[in-house]
Write a structure and sequence with these properties.
- The complex is a heterodimer of chains A (about 250) and B (about 350).
- With about 250 residues, chain A is an alpha/beta fold.
- Chain A has one domain (about 25-250): 3-Layer(aba) Sandwich (Rossmann fold).
- Helices cover about 40% and strands about 15% of the residues of chain A.
- Chain A has eleven helices and seven strands.
- In chain A, α1 crosses α8 and α4 packs across α5.
- The N and C termini of chain A lie far apart (about 50 Å).
- In chain A, about 55% of the residues are buried.
- Chain B is an alpha/beta fold and about 350 residues long.
- Chain B is about 40% helix and about 20% strand.
- Chain B is built from twelve helices and 15 strands.
- Chain B has helices at about 10-20, 35-45, 55-70, 80-95, 120-125, 145-160, 170-175, 220-235, 255-270, 290-300, 315-320, 340-350; strands at about 5-10, 25, 50-55, 75-80, 100-105, 135-140, 165-170, 175-180, 210, 240-245, 250-255, 275-280, 285, 300-305, 325-330.
- In chain B, α1 runs parallel beside α2 (about 35-45), α1 packs parallel to α6 (about 145-160) and α9 packs across α12 (about 340-350).
- The termini of chain B are far apart.
- The interface of A and B includes residues 64 and 104 of A.
- β2 (about 65) of chain A pairs parallel with β9 (about 210) of chain B, so a sheet runs across the interface.
Chain lengths: ~250, ~350
């Protein structure tokens, strides 16, 4: 019998602990496939966040480090500057990247640091039980905004790609989603570009991925995908926000 | 012949870091240590090293975490408020057993305090500083010569025990000019041994993971006990101090850094007056030279602890001497620097005037 589908060599044998319908597993797989396809697994150092993906250091079959909450881009900078031949990817959620780690994100982008940042936006704090995230939509319910996000009291969400697109520094910014097979294929393509930019010493790439959190959202996996298509991606439009490769042409 | 140069303390410190084979520096400007990053930016450029002026001390310490985990010698420098911001990162670095070098040019506190020399971060430096059960190896230079020599010593100890190391200085030492002897050849970073934990990409070996967490039942307890044993080894092996005139002393001054210089001058004045005064200068603040103090405390009746704070190291002196001798204190918090006449007056009060 011929094996036509299996676990990519970029993943370890460890069983992932994500909830059914969660988007993390999909993105892990896409990254792991690219580590092999781009032949960078043996040069890669991955950064696990604090949040649901904290155990990513057990899942990716490459060197890994687990830094303090939100500090991934700073730790990645340290490794990259010390070992320029390594390929760095910082895997972060919305709380990690857009709340506690906002400064590290913005400044790594402003420096055009030659790293790849993968930003999982599921508009909720999953690991701690569904609290308000910096990306929780106006009116969206969380365990710390049970009546829905009140922008008068809790302010507005942060649109990370739009925010960073205001800087001269970053090389590549794109927002994708996991709601349809087409968008998942697109996400892989975008991730590939983000890694290739680093391989070619182009600088800072950030891929924002709208990702399902059925547990945190109180929805089924199918409803979650539909909610991304119909609601979330309207607030967070998909597309390219910066691509200096095109400007250079 | 050994090369000798007249140097500023802060410049000697930078040369000491370069001579130690360190080619990675990240830091955020803060007075009174700004000459360190300024001079470092020039020197790292000359040496082909990495110099990063960061957006915050939080970013700086995390860049150090990354560089240290990548297996290179890495340094940051800051002053008290900045070191407070770094405590989260230092805790993670200690929890991941990564050697790095942190310089604290201490200033008056708490809060923004002032920019005058101080020793009010002693507790923070010697008790870990951040959350969790850990210690940082802490060295206290008292001369420009030691500012040059201690980075190498700090890296050697940090790497030997896989533990962050701290140099505790103050603005006065940094601004002082003294001759420096270049007592050793500069270390070529390429000659430093590869680290068996370094994140370099897993080509030709098993993948490596650097982390401070372990959620498996009982594992973190085990890890903490393992680290505790390491700390006991450091306490056993690495207590460093300088002791002068202890043989006939009626009173021992205990002081480190700038206060040790004040104490040395006071000791001379006291001896001229016939007062039998000695000096113990801790060089490692952690591990504290408690064995020597225990020995001195068993035979000398009076101790005077001199600090630029309200009394922090005095607790370690009390514990080390098991409260046997009379322990007195002279301190100047908030950026005050004691001077020899005021310390001498205190000694005269204790010993009952000239003999």
């Amino acid at each position: 019998m011929k094996l036509i589908f299996g676990r990519p060599a970029g993943l370890t044998e460890v069983n992932q602990r994500y909830c059914p319908g969660c988007g993390h597993g999909i993105v892990h797989r896409l990254i792991a496939e690219l580590l092999v396809e781009l032949d960078i697994r043996e040069r890669a150092v991955g950064i696990a966040p604090v949040g649901c993906a904290v155990f990513a250091d057990e899942y990716f079959n490459c060197d890994m480090i687990q830094p303090p909450h939100g500090r991934g881009p700073a730790v990645a900078t340290g490794i990259k500057r010390a070992r320029p031949d390594c390929i760095l990817f910082s895997y972060q959620g919305d709380g990690d990247l857009a709340a506690i780690g906002t400064a590290e994100t913005v400044h790594a982008a402003a420096r055009n640091e030659n790293i790849t940042v993968i930003f999982i936006n599921n508009a909720i704090y999953g690991m701690t039980g569904g609290q308000l995230a910096p990306t929780t939509l106006p009116g969206m319910r969380s365990t710390t905004s049970v009546q829905g996000r009140d922008t008068g009291k809790q302010g507005y969400p942060i649109k990370v790609c739009e925010l960073l697109a205001g800087l001269d520094g970053p090389y590549y910014l794109e927002r994708c989603a996991l709601d349809t097979p087409k968008n998942i294929i697109r996400t892989k393509k975008v991730l590939k570009t983000a890694f290739q930019n680093q391989i070619n010493n182009k600088g800072f790439s950030l891929v924002e991925i709208l990702s399902m959190c059925p547990t945190g959202w109180g929805m089924t996996p199918v409803q979650s995908k539909k909610w991304i298509s119909e609601v979330m991606s309207k607030y967070y439009p998909l597309g390219e926000f910066r691509n200096r490769a095109k400007e250079e042409k | 012949m050994v090369e000798k140069r007249l140097m500023y303390g802060n410049h000697a410190l930078v040369e000491g870091i370069i001579y130690a084979g360190c080619r990675f520096f990240a830091g955020y400007p803060i007075t009174p240590q700004n000459e360190v990053p300024e001079y470092m930016s020039i020197r790292m450029n000359e040496e082909g090293g990495v110099f990063l002026q960061t957006e915050s001390e939080i970013a700086a310490i995390n860049m150090l975490f990354g560089a240290g985990a990548a297996g290179v010698r890495a340094t940051t420098s800051s002053s008290s408020p900045g070191i407070s911001l770094m405590q989260e990162g230092i805790s993670y670095i200690a929890g991941a057993d990564i050697p790095v070098l942190i310089i604290n040019v201490v200033r008056g506190g708490p809060g923004l305090g002032n920019i005058a020399p101080a020793q009010s971060d002693y507790y923070q430096a010697t008790r870990g500083g951040g959350h969790g059960d850990y210690f940082t190896i802490t060295l206290a230079p008292n001369s420009v010569q030691e500012l040059f020599e201690f980075p190498r010593l700090a890296f050697e100890l940090a790497e030997k025990y896989r533990n962050p190391a701290l140099i505790l200085a103050d603005g006065l030492l940094g601004q002082m000019m003294e001759p420096v002897e270049f007592t050793f050849e500069p270390i070529d970073p390429k000659t430093l041994p590869e680290k068996n934990y370094a994140l370099t990409g897993c080509k030709g070996r098993e993948r490596r993971v650097v982390r401070s967490y372990d959620l498996r039942s009982g594992k973190l307890e085990e890890l903490n006990w393992k680290r505790y044993k390491k700390y006991q080894e450091i306490i056993k092996n690495e207590q460093r101090y300088e002791v002068i005139n202890d043989n006939d002393a009626d009173l021992m001054i205990v002081a480190y850094g700038t206060c040790a210089r004040v104490a040395a001058a006071t000791m001379k004045m006291a001896r001229d007056k016939g007062l039998k005064v000695g000096l113990l200068r801790p060089i490692t603040l952690w591990p504290f030279p408690k064995d020597k103090l225990a020995e001195l405390g068993a035979r000398i009746n009076n101790f005077l602890v001199v600090e630029m704070n309200c009394g922090q190291m005095i607790d370690d002196v009390r514990a080390a001497t098991r409260f046997r001798p009379q322990i007195h204190f002279h301190g100047r918090p908030g950026g005050g620097v004691p001077n020899p006449p005021e310390v001498l007056k205190k000694i005269e009060e204790i010993l009952g005037g000239a003999q």
